[in-house]
């Protein structure tokens, strides 16, 4: 068991939209080096949770702590600087720039500098960019324009860019969306190895259950804004409440609804 301070600790997070309880008293934590899947049926509250952690949304109640520090309600930029990286479902890379230049730009932006092709900082970041691309298996593609990459490689590039700020916590929004079965497995295996190598905590949402059950250290399940399970793959897979939520069965919360 890891006894160090959690990288992320969320406590009693609550967010309502009118009558919709997008999040209702959700609490969980992530340790360094842990790969934690956040799953749940559509509308369960996964995106709301991500958006609160990275500062895009303010919770109505509850707290977000990063390595023990209260970051609730801080601006996204500040939260990013404190070590929270994020990848999105739709990749955001510059197609006309090379893979290496995209990573250099991310490295320089992470330091609050401006990307200029002729500046010395650009040359310095070059070696770091190549080292990062080595870690994500993209070194051989470093000089290709990003626009010419296969889809799975665009996602690897995006991951490389998210690592540029040297985050302690990485939020990944459906990292394998749109990938074939083989690409999915390769991507999540890469993320898995990076968590170990960098002592990085990763919180990811995912609809592909082969990815979740094959690779996550732990799984947190939301349904209708409530946490209904938090445990190992085995525990969650065999949990009747989880099955009911996924099969569209009537959960206790749903049966109470008017
Ligand atoms: N800006 C908003 N205004 C009103 N309701 C919202 C808003 N954002 C989210 N919701 C509602 O909050 C609930 C949780 O939404 P959220 O997007 O967090 O779920 P999710 O688990 O990410 O879903 P999905 O898997 O479909 O992406 C849903 O009922 C959704 O309709």
TrEMBL record:
<keyword id="KW-0067">ATP-binding</keyword>
<protein>
    <submittedName>
        <fullName>Branched-chain amino acid transport system ATP-binding protein</fullName>
    </submittedName>
</protein>
<feature type="domain" description="ABC transporter">
    <location>
        <begin position="8"/>
        <end position="249"/>
    </location>
</feature>
<dbReference type="InterPro" id="IPR003593">
    <property type="entry name" value="AAA+_ATPase"/>
</dbReference>
<dbReference type="InterPro" id="IPR051120">
    <property type="entry name" value="ABC_AA/LPS_Transport"/>
</dbReference>
<keyword id="KW-0813">Transport</keyword>
<dbReference type="InterPro" id="IPR003439">
    <property type="entry name" value="ABC_transporter-like_ATP-bd"/>
</dbReference>
<dbReference type="GO" id="GO:0005524">
    <property type="term" value="F:ATP binding"/>
</dbReference>
<dbReference type="Pfam" id="PF12399">
    <property type="entry name" value="BCA_ABC_TP_C"/>
</dbReference>
<dbReference type="InterPro" id="IPR027417">
    <property type="entry name" value="P-loop_NTPase"/>
</dbReference>
<dbReference type="Pfam" id="PF00005">
    <property type="entry name" value="ABC_tran"/>
</dbReference>
<dbReference type="InterPro" id="IPR032823">
    <property type="entry name" value="BCA_ABC_TP_C"/>
</dbReference>
<keyword id="KW-0547">Nucleotide-binding</keyword>
């Amino acid at each position: 068991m890891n006894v160090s301070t959690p990288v992320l600790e969320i406590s009693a997070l609550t967010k309502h939209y009118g009558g919709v309880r997008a999040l209702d008293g959700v609490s969980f934590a992530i340790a360094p080096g842990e790969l934690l899947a956040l799953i749940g049926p559509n509308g369960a509250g996964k995106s709301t949770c991500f958006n609160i952690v990275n500062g895009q949304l303010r919770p109505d109640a509850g707290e977000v702590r990063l390595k023990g520090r209260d970051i609730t309600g801080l601006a996204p930029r500040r939260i990013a600087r404190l070590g929270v990286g994020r990848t999105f479902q739709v990749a955001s890379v510059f197609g006309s720039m090379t893979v290496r230049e995209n990573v250099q730009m991310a490295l320089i932006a992470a330091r609050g500098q401006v990307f200029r092709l002729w500046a010395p900082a650009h040359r310095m970041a070059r070696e770091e960019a190549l080292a990062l691309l080595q870690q994500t298996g993209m070194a051989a593609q470093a000089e290709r324009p990003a626009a010419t990459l296969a889809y799975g490689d665009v996602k690897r590039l995006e991951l490389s860019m998210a690592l540029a700020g040297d985050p302690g916590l990485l939020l990944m929004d459906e990292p394998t969306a749109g990938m074939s079965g083989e690409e999915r497995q390769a991507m999540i295996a890469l993320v898995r190895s990076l968590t170990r190598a960098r002592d990085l905590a990763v919180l990811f949402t995912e609809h592909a259950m082969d990815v979740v059950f094959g690779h996550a250290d732990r799984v947190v399940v939301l349904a209708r804004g409530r946490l209904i399970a938090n445990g190992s793959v085995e525990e969650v897979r065999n949990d009747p409440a989880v099955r009911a939520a996924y099969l569209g069965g009537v959960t206790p919360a749903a049966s109470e609804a008017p």
